[in-house]
Predict the 3D structure of the following.
Amino acid sequence: QKEVEQNSGPLSVPEGAIASLNCTYSDRGSQSFFWYRQYSGKSPELIMSIYSNGDKEDGRFTAQLNKASQYVSLLIRDSQPSDSATYLCAVRVGTYKYIFGTGTRLKVLA
Amino acid sequence: DARVTQTPRHKVTEMGQEVTMRCQPILGHNTVFWYRQTMMQGLELLAYFRNRAPLDDSGMPKDRFSAEMPDATLATLKIQPSEPRDSAVYFCASLGGTYNEQFFGPGTRLTVL
């Protein structure tokens, strides 16, 4: 079983819709959770961090964490074509140990 | 603004040649990671340093790869000899912020012919 799992996609949503990206992890001791956006040919860019159960909102982005069920999700409201990218989930499982998922490719259709 | 820098951005070399990639972490960030990304494998951790000391390099092929951090502003990743299977994008990331977040450099795209 992979330590951090994401559906590879592509996830296609119409412009203006809510995009929902999901990530599950296997280590119950995981401490912090991160979402990165990566455009084709570019480096991963941090967009959200979450540490406590519940929701954390930042602009059009909402991260949701459920430690009991071992999943973290990212919601993108009012999706725009510029949101089309690969979204990487990362989990901190030790002081300096971070595990990345393989990413979900999102396509927002104009 | 503060960001991680990497050089070179692109490198094309022939099999057997030595390749050196450089990374300048964000000033004040004491922990530096090296990753390799390919379409097939995704993002793989190669090594990481804390206060210039290597903490874990188990992800690196030891016979040909070496990583060092000669000072707080420079981390290097060297491949000698390079092989076609080393072709990938190599990212450096430094750790900082309130919540121990990784910030990535722009990457070095390596092609070994």
